[in-house]
Amino acid sequence: MLNDTDKAQEIQRIREAAMYRLRTEGVAVAVQTLIEISGDRTAPKNARVVASRTLGEMNGLGGLDALGIEKPLSEMTRAELSAAKDRAIAYLAELERPPVIEGIAIEVQDGEAGEPPELGLFD
Fold first, then answer.
1. 78 is a domain residue
2. Tens digits of per-residue pLDDT, 17-45?
3. How far apart, in whole angstroms, are the C-alpha atoms of residue 35 and residue 28?
4. Residue 111: inside a domain
5. What highest taxon heads this organism's lineage (predicted)?
6. Could you identify which of 4, 62, 102, 113 might form a hypothetical disulfide with 56, taking C-beta atoms 3.0 to 4.6 angstroms apart as the criterion?
7. Which of 24, 26, 75, 47 is nearest to 39 (CA)?
8. What are the C-alpha distances in Å from 27 to residues 4, 22, 24, 98, 123?
């Protein structure tokens, strides 16, 4: 009979073996299936499109990569680099702004704390 430590080690060994099979045999089967579906002219068009898109995404040809978002800088055009720079500058400026709490703004002079305005129950 196994003690708790041995049981935990056996469970971990089984999980690692299953993950290894998934990452080797499982991926090979998945890719082969996608290739078969995308190349089968008798398969429904939507199935072929999904299979082809998935293969493209797995190869870095689709999804965000196709929009140039995850594209390496060395592969970007001048216009894409300029747009990426503008997005980065805007995002950095947003990060540097102090947080804003939604509500009523209260004027406060240096060194003094103002009293909050009187509010009703639903204001």
1. yes
2. 999 998 899 889 999 999 999 999 999 99
3. 11
4. no
5. Bacteria
6. 62
7. 47
8. 33, 6, 6, 46, 58
